[in-house]
Amino acid sequence: QLPTGLYKKVLVILHDSVLPYMNEPTLMMDFLTVAYGIGGAISLLALNGLFILIHQHNLEYPDFYKKLYSLLDPSIYHVKYRARFFHLTDLFLSSSHLPAYLVAAFIKRLARLALTAPPEALLMIIPFLCNLFRRHPACRVLVHRPGGPADMSEDPYVMEEEEPSKSRALESSLWEIQSLQSHYHPDVAKAAAVLNHSLSEMEDDISGLLELSAYELFDKEVKKKAVDVPLEFEQVRGLFGKKNDIFAEHFSLD
Question: Which of 5, 17, 143, 151 would you call most buried, defined as having the most Cβ atoms within 10 angstroms of its Cβ?
Answer without folding.
Answer: 143
